[in-house]
Amino acid sequence: MIKIGLRDARAHFGRFVMSIIAIALGVSFVVGSFCFREMMNNQVSDMMGTSADHDVYVRGSKEVKSDSSGLMAASSSSKTYNTINVDLASTIGDVKGVKSAEVVYSVSGTVLVGKDGAAVSTMGAPTLAVGFGKDVPWRSATFTSGTDPTSDDEIALHSFAAEKANLKVGDKTKVVYPDGPKDVTVTGIFNLDSSLAGAIIIDIPPSLAKMYATQQSDDPDKTDQIGIYGNLKTPLDEQAQQELADRINKALPAGSKAHAITGNQLRDESTQSTQEALGFVQPLILIFAVIALFVGSFIIANTFSMIVRESMRGYALLRSIGASPAQVFTTVIVQAIMLGVVGSGIGIGLGWGMVKGIVAMMGQMGTPMTGSSNPSVSDMLVGLAVGLIVTLIGAALPASRAAMAPPIQAMNETVNPEKPVLTRGIIGTTMIVVGALTWAWTCRIAVADGDPTLIGWLNDFASWTGTGWPLGVGAALIVIGVIVAGPAWVSPAGAVLGWIPAHVFQVTGRLATRNLSRHKRRTSNTAAALFVGVAIVSCLSVVATSAKASVNDIVDTGLKADFSISSAASGQIPDNAVEAIKGVVGLKSVSSNRMIFGAKYDGKQVKGMFAAQDSLFTDVFAPEIIAGDANKALRGGELVVGEDIADDQGWKVGDTVKVSTENTTVDEEATAQAQADYQTQVQAQIQSLTEEAQKLALAGDAAGAQAKSDEIQQVTQQAQNVDPATLVKTKQVTVIKKLKVGAIISNSVYRSCVFVNDDLGDQLGTKQTMFTMQMYLVAKPGENLDKLEQRIKKAVKPYYVISVMNRDEYKSTMGSMVDQILLVLYALLALSIVIAIFGIVNTLALSVSERTKEIGLLRAIGTSRGQVRGMLGIEASIIAVFGTVMGMVVGVAAGAVIRAVYEANGLSVLGIPWDQLGVFLVLSILVGLIASVSPASRALKQPVLDAVASE
Q: How far apart, in whole angstroms, are the C-alpha atoms of residue 225 and residue 267?
């Protein structure tokens, strides 16, 4: 029987082409998703091995929970530990086996200016200035030319950064630091052990990196970790790392709240955290795989239905000479296995090629990836297993039909009538109703101000589930319900969708409509391909359009300012740039928001405190007030609180809140004492050396006296070149203010913010830790806005990273982000269309095969070739439109529910992309017409008499 199956597989290979394509597409996305995930994991692992290459790390001994509220805090999977004293580095440096123990400071948000005078950037990768050199080594960095920078006006560049900037050793350029651009000279080019995925790495003097890093820190005397090298050239093995960590732990002071771990442990933790953050990529790719395999199973089922129908007399003959049903079943399954193996093999190759293509494209866009993208044995086995399982599932029903059909019936090719679909309709519709009720319950939870019901246990259940679970469960019930109920809707949908064709093309239109109802399950299954794809695309299109509409509504109804100013340098606008903007002629008011770091409310830290000018609510944004008077509160030194924070903290207008900040300031007295002590130490050292030189001279040792004299000069030179920052002593100053909540506002841009006026901001923060994050400009009445915009851009041009946006550009910023998301959605839609074409072609081919005699009779009584093509084209178009309409209805409903659930997060306006939905509908008709070409040609290829006599 296996030989018979293999012979039939060769004979029917042409029938298998579309099934092989469907399986290959599905398997390619499965294998591609695993390859891409492993490539990203390898890339992250290599990057961690380069950027965090110390043998041992000392960090806090106690894990702390973030007090921050909001989405980022909730979604972060990385652990946070208490900060430790930077002075521990000197204690650690005295431990046996420690070659270097340093805090490595880095500065984010810097910008390198290339040789052409433009800022250097890559696709999504950051620019990072790292302070390393002779005293603070980085083992993974190897200089290919030049040396480390030694002064603040020098830099060294990673080879990738030098290539992107077209700079070499000796070239002069600019680096934009958080406080503005600085002229620098390139002193060296270095390589790293692995690619950092397109990051621009700049080497700056460690003292300069420390200065900027401490400005951005709540406590400059604290650090997250200290890196230790046990060998400056080669990494220590695991055992040596552990032994060094144990010695360091013994040497750490009892009250230091610090703990040493191996470098491998920290790298493993960081790698796992980053890999989890990138975990969304694989499910995104698997969505494509699910759609391809979902439709592929139907195509396979249809293909084997055609093969079984054509071979039924042969199977009956086998049964009549003694073959068992199991042997006949095996004959069909052997063909399915061959199909699955071929399709899976092609799919594995396609998946590998797809990832290679993505890697090449990312490299061209400036994000080189060096992680291995080759599929592992397990990846290939998974792809093979998926392809075989889907193929066997699709072939199982036709195979069982071939095996279980009585031989006499099979000889006569009697066709059993299709089973009733009413039960499926009832079950599917019930699932849809339950899913819709679940969505309604989700919306109720989202909009409820407090408990959603008056029933205690139901409120507890709602608190436990939140909105995510019922939203997902409702979507699953509705999607599955539509697929289950689909066959019951074929006849009514055919009557509605076929009304126009039936009246325009009376013969072919009516025949096409009636033909669809012959095999309701098959028609519904074929339409399911477009249904799933269009539903996903429609849903996300509604969400994306709502996001754009919400931003536009904020700008149109709330934003009063004419221009918005922001910066790519960690969001910080340099003070000099602020002053330059204020000096532009034609501005009525300039409002800037400065972030206050480390503010605590009643002892609890909540991010998002800003100091703002009194003009914020009058000239920039009109506040949506829930309680109080925002403008009066800001001017009167009270807190203006966003709704989310007010709800989280349980604040109401009139409540008094203890606001505290801990600021690090220069301890003038301690600094003066440190400078005096250092001067005394140097003088004492010089005095001692001078006395020794005199003694040697009196003893006649001229060489010894000269050596001491040289040593005196060296000590004097070192004293003159000492970094003044090392002698600056700081102290912690706690500022406590009892402030009243003066207003609560609900603007989506303010919901997670707390505002105080500038006077209070200056008291709560310091100039070093308060940065201007955003500016809003209002023009004088009658001012020409185009000319004013040019003057503003001219004023900020020397700062390279300052962005000036007018009202339309401010709105389009969100629009461009949404458009990038839509590109992914259109790729998903394109895949759905391609697979749907295969499905419809396959379904019509099966239908034509079953109706060979019928089509022959139609042609015999005068039906033209064009009418036959038209009939099949109408059938295919109705199938495509049926799936598209179901997908649009479910997708739009899902998008509307998501918008309602997340209204508090800024999706305040529902936007339905009617133009895109119209395009989807037109495309579905074209898909049907294209899909009908091949089956129609096959139907017309057979001579009329042969077709009539075929049965």
A: 13
